[in-house]
Structures are given as C-alpha cells and as structure tokens.
C-alpha cells in the first residue's frame, strides 16, 4: 500500500520515519500510542532550582531545549543536505521546505548567541569603574581614573585644568602626574611591586528617589543634567600589598549608571588609598580600626598629638 506524507503529500517508502521532502516527523502506530512516564520535578530532570541560574545560563539552557525539540521533530540530516548554495539561490522559484527550515535554525542560533554575549558583556557592568580606579593606582596611569567619571565631570575638569593650562594637553596627563605620585607613596610604605587588590563584598541598590537627586545634582555641579538610571552602594575589601608589608581595609563607594555608562560617584584620587596615606571613604566605623601597633612609629614627635581632633577618631 502506497504511503504519502500527511504534511506535504510527497510519496514515501513503507518504513520512512521522516518525509524526505519537507522533513516532518511521521507518526507510526507504535509512536502514536499513548505512553505514561513518571513525572520528574525540574531539579530531578537536571535543571537548576529557581533563582540559582544566571541570565546567561538561562539563555543557554533555553537554546539547548530548542535544539533538542528540533532534533526530535525534524530530520536534521535532510535539512543539512538541503543547505546548498544552489537550493538557497533557487528559493524564489523553488521553495525547498528543508532549506527554509535550515536557514531559520541558523538565524535563531545567531540571535541566541548574540543575546548570550550581550548578557555576559553587560551584566556586572557596575564593577567596571571600581576596576578602572584600582588600575590607575597599580599602573600610575591617569586615563583609568578619567574612565571612572561621567562625561559632565570630564568636560568640567577639562575646562578648569586643561584649557587654561600651559603644561597639560589632556585630562589624562593631569592625572598621570597625580597617580604617579600616589604610586610612589604606596611604594614608600609597602615596598616594590606594590599592588592594590579588592573584593566586592556586597552591593545595595540605590533608591529611585536618590537617583533623581543625583541627576539633579549633576546639573547643579556641572551645568548639565544626566540620566541617572541605576546605582549601587558597594562595600569593598581592600588589600595594599608590596615586598615589605601588607595591610587590609574596607571601603564604601557608590556607582551610578549615568547616560548609559557606569561611573564612580564623588570619588577622588585618594578614595582607594590606605588611611595612613590620606585614604578617604573608609567603610570601618572608626579610624581606630586602622591603627596597628606597628604603625606607632609613624606618629613621629609626640608633640603632633596636639593636632589630633576627636572627630578624626570617630567620636
């Protein structure tokens, strides 16, 4: 008895499982019979519990499921064989269904890869300005510090320190001098091969009301309002280390997304310096937390104690 495809009507061999013309999977009596299988929960089936996967992992899992469904319902071998330049060129006159399906699969795959790449590239972007500031200390290059600023601040500083200067041609050059000086100070305290290491311990989302205030503050400070769309307050563990000694501390900073770029808010060249070298923005509750008995030699003449303000000690 002749057998025909129920989807496109093409003639088939008696035991064909797939249509060689359109690639559709054909039901047999055995496969059409209802089957019962134990129901697995998502965790038993190998899926991660809700909330435990990253956006990139979720996108990859979704793409994997799509490919599995395609493998079960179409003849991938037939589709692969139909993806010839001749078939593609002749699509306007001769529409080969397998060729069309194959091109669609390729298109979906390209889009899925693009989505995963965008998620990987742009998630965690709030960490970038922190990384750039640390790089400025570790290299002595001011360009990394300039990368932590919003465009409004860069323009303001260029007008104040570059356009009216006979020494500097760019803002990067201004901060080259500053961060080379900071690096020298770090070497004096910690020895050669000095580095700053960091680890972001926590982040707290900035409220919408504060984002609005930050946006208005940009206009007040630099004469141009910016779109502040997101922000986090970060608690960061810091380590200053060199050949001679190593010290630890904690810093608290705020990062904001201004006009689509993540920047540091209200940070200076001293923000990530250790307390003993003029560091600011310390996350510890008191300056006393940073005193080590080994630092007593740094106090100098006892007469200097008269310059200490109780406010400096956290009181």
Write a structural description.
The chain is elongated, with a radius of gyration of 31 Å. Helix 3 (76-82) packs across helix 5 (97-122). A hairpin with a 2-residue loop joins strand 5 (246-258) and strand 6. The strands form two sheets. A four-stranded antiparallel sheet has the order 3-4-5-6, sandwiched between helices. It starts with a strand and ends in a 50-residue tail after the last strand. With 315 residues, the chain is of the alpha+beta class. The longest helix has 26 residues, at 97-122. Residues 29-54 and 283-315 have low confidence and may be disordered. It has two domains: 16-26 and 54-123, no CATH class; 125-295, Nuclear Transport Factor 2, Chain: A. Helix content is 39%, strand content 15%.
């Amino acid at each position: 008895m002749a057998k025909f495809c129920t989807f496109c009507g093409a003639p088939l061999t008696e035991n064909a499982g797939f249509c060689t013309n359109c690639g559709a999977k054909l039901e047999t009596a055995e496969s059409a019979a209802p089957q019962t299988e134990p129901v697995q929960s998502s965790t038993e089936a190998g899926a991660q519990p809700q909330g435990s996967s990253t956006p990139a992992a979720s996108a990859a899992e979704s793409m994997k499921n799509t490919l599995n469904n395609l493998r079960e319902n179409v003849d991938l071998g037939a589709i692969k064989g139909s993806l010839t330049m001749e078939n593609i060129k002749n699509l306007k006159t001769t529409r080969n269904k397998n060729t069309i399906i194959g091109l669609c699969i390729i298109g979906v795959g390209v889009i899925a890869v693009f989505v995963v790449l965008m998620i990987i590239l742009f998630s965690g972007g709030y960490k970038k300005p922190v990384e750039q500031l640390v790089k400025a200390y570790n290299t002595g290059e001011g360009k990394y510090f300039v990368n932590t600023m919003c465009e409004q601040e860069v323009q303001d500083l260029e007008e104040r320190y570059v356009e009216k200067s006979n020494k500097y041609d760019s803002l990067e050059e201004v901060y080259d001098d500053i961060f080379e000086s900071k690096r020298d100070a770090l070497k004096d305290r910690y020895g050669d091969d000095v580095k700053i290491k960091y680890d972001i311990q926590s982040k707290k989302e900035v409220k919408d009301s504060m984002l609005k205030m930050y946006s208005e503050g940009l206009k007040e400070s630099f004469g141009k309002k910016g779109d502040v769309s997101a922000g986090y307050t970060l608690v960061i563990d810091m380590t200053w280390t060199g050949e001679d000694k190593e010290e630890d501390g904690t810093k608290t900073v705020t990062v904001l997304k201004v006009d689509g770029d993540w920047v540091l808010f209200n940070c200076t060249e001293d923000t990530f310096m250790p307390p003993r070298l003029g560091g600011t923005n310390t996350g510890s509750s008191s300056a006393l937390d940073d005193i080590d008995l080994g630092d007593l030699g740094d106090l100098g003449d006892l007469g200097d104690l008269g310059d200490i303000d109780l406010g400096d000690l956290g009181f």
